[in-house]
Design brief:
The complex is a heterodimer.
Chain A lengths: L12 H12 L2 E2 H11 L8 H14 L2 E4 L14 E4 L1 H23 L8
Antiparallel strand pairs in A: 1-3, 2-3
Chain B lengths: L1 H7 L4 H21 L3 H39 L1 H30 L10 E8 L13 H10 L3 E15 L5 E8 L3 H5 L5 E2 L11 E4 L1 H8 L9 E4 L2 E8 L11 E6 L16 E6 L5 H18 L1 H4 L2 E7 L6 H35 L1 H9 L4 H34 L17 H29 L2 H5 L6 H37 L9 E5 L10 H16 L4 E7 L10 E2 L16 E6 L3 H5 L3 E4 L13 E5 H7 L9 E4 L2 E9 L14 E5 L15 E6 L3 H15 L6 E5 H8 L1 H35 L1 H9 L4 H33 L12 H27 L3 H7 L1
Parallel strand pairs in B: 3-8, 5-7, 14-19, 16-18
Antiparallel strand pairs in B: 1-9, 1-10, 2-3, 2-6, 2-9, 4-7, 5-8, 6-7, 11-20, 11-21, 12-20, 13-14, 15-18, 16-19, 17-18
The chains are: A mainly alpha, B alpha+beta.
Chain lengths: ~120, ~850
């Protein structure tokens, strides 16, 4: 498990979106897909394969962890797998956001991007 | 939904197990949200998505496994290095052995449809023996060709040697004269020009090999039509054969036309050609053989004087090799395979030990959700990485080892000197590598996968008796194969010693040899030849450091033929096949030069001229055969119509080779060769005993010969010790390889026993500690561990000895009279095995004795 957040940067887009989706609450797979789609206004629709491929890697990297299934939520009686962001995952997400902000600032300073979008 | 579950099988099983249900659930939810046509679109999208993502997931896992593997191997570099080395040796030895065996035994000869190519000679009526027993007479060849229906084409050839002048330096060449059928029936077209049509003007035409074209004529594109000089006669080059074409073997560089004149066909006893044919497609080898045997019977009835004892030797071109060569290659292949098995056993053991060490870790990971398949996959990745690294190194080893094996490629086959390391060989190496990987990788991985969960339940002292037993069996197998390898190589070592200990009948040290074959018709006149010998010998004998020098018509071990018959007045004529005499024509000082003892009488002298009475020096076996118990000096016999008197008796020489019986020998003075005798009677091999540097001597002799005759080439320059060493070259090559295999085997076995016992001691540390703390005698504990190791060794030695005896019987033809159960070899091998495995057991035993009781208890 990698110890320093910066060593994972830049994050793949899917990974960042999943971290953002999990920032507020623990969710199961389908909820993550819907959350990402809603946040991006339908621009990013994660497929199940991409989602779980990312999740598998993020578990390995220690960005998220699985929490025991809770039945009854969503009115769904299936056993589901829920994921929660780890403190390390949170710091990596913050670092990635910082990196993106810095790049945006650079672009603005050069006049490439208008100061107010 | 079922369709989707099926698609999910494209994912790695661990991934499917972890997330398959979730993914199916997501699809279910999506389907619930979608309607009508949207559902169909969803199915298509989902299918595409799985097909895109599945390989990516496989790749992810592979990357991760590789990372884990590198990390794991980096943690235990000694293990990684040992494993790689061991695999490299196993794969390398097998690839080399197999590529040579394949090249010689399996691969079709480099001609189209080679299974229909056969060779035909005269042989005993029983059709016994291998290869060409006796050559054919042109008359018998003609009759067999006329009578036989079995051949699509049948031709004949006879070999010879000529001095070539033209192109580069003058050279001595082995050539073949062939009837017009021979080259076309082989099915290989010339690279340039054409083959023989059989017209009489082609008697001065020559076809050359690719190698000769390159070396002598620099690959000259305008070579066709060029005239070269063969033994003084002009020949026109009409064709160049392609690279890799050899017939009948790789020594022959030039082909001329063979035609029979009336007088050639007159004498059925004059045998100097061999037949080569292509069978008709609808005739089997056995049918052809039966047919020829029938024709031979008919010839025997029609010409009883010459053919009463004559049958045919008829064999496939592919089979023209000594059974010993085949056996040697098979022995090597078997030994290599033995080492590969041993390698696998050893690595399986190492991996099992490592798997045990990680058992708790693996069990914890398994419990935390890493599926069993995932663990298996990881272990397999690890062994694959090791195998890959080892195989690449093994290929390098094979590449280096193939030349060592090249002396095992029989010179009688139309093949290159050694196999090239081509795709086929690389494929074989890959196959051996895969075999290794499966053998040592999969087995422990499956076991680790199976016992993974049990370890947690059983508590700290995991890895119970069952696994120990399997490892014990592996060690026993290792010891067994080691014993087999040790004993078989031991037997072969004894055989080589015995062969090397045979007295060849001469002393080769400090004797230089070279060949100056005098070409006809230039040297047709015996006086001219004598002049050449006299002038060269006089000057050579005058060189500083030269003790003696002589010319002879053939060195022992090199020229094994020149067999003749004699008649003794008053004795019954013997059958030609049992009374052969090996005869040589020579100048004085030959016996002195080779230190062949002169037992009675005198050497030939300069005074033994053609005008003087015929004399002969004979070997003691010659004297014993014809005049047992009598003084042979002064006895007379007839040879080729000439009476000769025995003037001297010398010791016998192993003319045919160290491992073969030789005919009695007869030496005749060069000056008494009657005019018109075949050119191969002429003395041509110069032997010089000297005390100086070989190079300086050869340079001086070259100058002398050039001064006497500038067009005369010198060939086959080598010390007599090389000639003798050539006798045992293939044996020594085989021995080097087998010896190396045996050495590796014994080391592996020692490592195997050590590894197992060391692990046992580590596992039982606490138990041993408790015992010691309770007052057990440390010596008893050490003895127990040591006895454990020795028991494994003994269990391996007993079946090993039995298997080795069986192997020894199988290769008894190679053992030159050493019994396959040779007690001293067996005893030595068993003792060596005991000592080495004992050493491997001793270290863990000592470690057990030193277990500090308190620390062990504290751990509990």
């Amino acid at each position: 498990v990698t110890s320093h957040p910066d060593s994972l940067l830049p994050l793949p887009a899917a990974t960042f979106h999943i971290l953002v989706a999990l920032a507020g609450d623990e969710r199961h797979g389908y909820a993550i897909i819907k959350d990402v789609a809603a946040r991006t206004g339908g621009a990013l629709k994660l497929s199940a394969g991409t989602l779980y491929r990312s999740i598998d890697r993020m578990l390995e990297q220690g960005l998220i962890r699985e929490v025991s299934a809770r039945s009854g939520r969503d009115g769904d009686d299936e056993r589901r797998r829920y994921y929660r962001i780890t403190p390390f995952g949170r710091s990596v997400a913050v670092a990635e956001a910082g990196r993106l902000a810095q790049m945006l600032a650079l672009a603005r300073a050069s006049g490439l991007v208008p100061r107010k979008a | 939904m079922r369709f989707y579950r099926l698609l999910l099988h494209l994912y790695p099983s661990s991934f499917r197990k972890d997330y398959g249900e979730e993914m199916a659930a997501i699809l279910r939810l999506r389907l619930r949200d979608a309607t009508g046509a949207g559902r169909l679109a969803l199915y298509v999208a989902v299918a595409c998505e799985v097909i895109m993502n599945a390989p990516a997931v496989h790749w992810d896992i592979l990357k991760q496994d590789l990372r884990d593997t590198v990390r794991a191997l980096n943690r235990s570099r000694a293990f990684a290095l040992t494993a790689t080395l061991v695999i490299a040796l196993g794969v390398g030895a097998n690839t080399a052995a197999f590529s040579v065996a394949d090249f010689v035994l399996l691969r079709p000869l480099p001609f189209p449809d080679p299974d229909r190519l056969v060779r035909l000679c005269e042989g005993p009526r029983t059709m016994a023996g291998w290869g060409c027993q006796n050559q054919l007479s042109p008359a018998n060849y003609r009759d067999l060709k006329q009578m036989s229906q079995a051949f699509q084409a049948l031709g004949a050839f006879g070999s010879g040697a000529v001095n070539l002048v033209g192109g580069g330096e003058p050279r001595r060449l082995t050539i073949l004269s062939v009837t017009p059928e021979v080259l076309p029936l082989l099915g290989v077209n010339p690279l340039l020009g054409r083959t023989f049509a059989g017209t009489s003007d082609e008697l001065s035409a020559a076809i050359i090999s690719y190698a000769l074209w390159q070396s002598q004529f620099g690959g000259d594109a305008g070579i066709l039509g060029r005239t070269v000089n063969l033994d003084g006669a002009p020949y026109t080059i009409i064709g160049v054969m392609p690279r890799g074409f050899y017939f009948p073997n790789r020594d022959v560089q030039l082909w001329t036309l063979l035609q029979f004149r009336e007088q050639d066909l007159a004498n059925r006893a004059n045998t100097y050609i061999e037949g080569v044919g292509r069978l008709r497609a609808d005739v089997t080898f056995e049918q052809a053989r039966a047919e020829l045997s029938m024709h031979a019977d008919r010839l025997a009835r029609e010409y009883p004087d010459t053919n009463a004892e004559t049958g045919v030797s008829f064999f496939r071109m592919r089979d023209n090799m000594a059974p010993r060569s085949r056996l040697m290659l098979l022995t090597l292949s078997a030994a290599s395979l033995c080492l590969l098995l041993l390698t696998c056993a050893n690595l399986a053991n190492l991996l099992l030990a490592r798997a045990s060490a990680y058992e708790r870790e693996l069990a914890v990971r398994a419990a935390l959700g890493a599926g069993r398949q995932r663990l298996v996959r990881q272990l397999v990745t690890q062994s694959l990485v090791l195998t890959l690294a080892g195989s690449v190194a093994g290929l390098a080893i094979a590449w280096a080892a193939v030349p060592v094996f090249s002396s095992l490629v029989p010179a009688t086959l139309p093949l290159d000197a050694q196999p090239a390391l081509d795709l086929r060989v690389i494929a074989v190496a890959a196959a051996f590598a895969a075999l290794t990987a499966l053998g040592f990788g999969l087995f422990p991985a499956l076991r680790a996968g199976r016992t993974g969960f049990a370890a947690l339940r059983e508590g700290t002292r995991a890895g119970g008796g069952r696994k120990q037993r399997i490892r014990g069996v592996l060690v026993i197998a290792e010891v067994m194969m080691t014993v087999v390898l040790l004993i078989t190589s031991g037997l072969l070592i004894r055989a080589v010693w015995r062969v090397q200990a045979i007295d060849p009948g001469f002393r080769p040290e400090n004797v230089m040899t070279m060949r100056t074959a005098l070409p006809r018709p230039r040297y047709e006149d015996p006086v001219r030849r004598s002049e050449f010998y006299d002038r060269v010998l006089a000057q050579v004998r005058g060189l500083p450091g030269v003790e003696s020098a002589a010319f002879i018509s053939g060195l022992p071990l090199v020229v094994t033929g020149l067999i003749t018959g004699i008649e003794i007045p008053g004795q019954d004529a013997r059958s030609g096949r049992t009374s052969g005499i090996s005869h040589r024509w020579l100048t004085p000082q030959y016996f002195e030069t080779l230190r062949i003892p002169l037992l009675r009488g005198r050497d030939v002298e300069d005074g033994d001229l053609s005008t003087r009475p015929g004399v002969a020096v004979v070997s003691s076996s010659f004297a014993d055969r014809y005049w047992p118990g009598q003084d042979p000096i002064g006895k007379a016999f007839r040879h080729r119509g000439q009476m000769r008197t025995v003037v001297g008796v010398v010791g016998d020489v192993r003319v045919r080779g160290l491992e073969r019986t030789s005919e009695p020998q007869m030496y005749l003075p060069a000056q008494q060769i009657a005019a018109g005798q075949p050119a191969n009677f002429d003395p041509k091999d110069l032997v010089v005993r000297h005390s100086g540097e070989d190079e300086a001597l050869v340079a001086s002799i070259r100058q002398i010969v050039r001064a006497v005759d500038p067009a005369q080439p010198i060939s086959d320059v080598r010390p007599m010790t090389d000639v003798l060493a050539g006798e045992t070259a293939s044996r020594r090559a085989q021995l080097q390889v087998l010896g190396a295999l045996a050495l590796v085997a014994i080391l592996l076995s020692a490592v195997g026993i050590y590894g197992l016992l060391a692990y046992t001691v580590a596992q039982r540390r606490q138990e041993i500690g408790v015992r010691l703390a309770l007052g057990a005698d440390p010596a008893d504990v050490g003895r127990m561990i040591f006895a454990n190791g020795m028991r494994l060794a003994l269990f391996g030695i007993v079946p090993g000895v039995i298997a080795a005896y069986a192997a020894g019987r199988g290769m008894s033809a190679l053992l030159f009279g050493i019994a396959p159960g040779d007690p001293s070899t067996f005893a030595t091998a068993v003792i060596v095995t005991l000592v080495v495995t004992g050493a491997g057991s001793l270290v863990p035993a000592i470690r057990a004795v030193r277990v500090p009781p308190l620390i062990a208890l504290r751990a509990e």
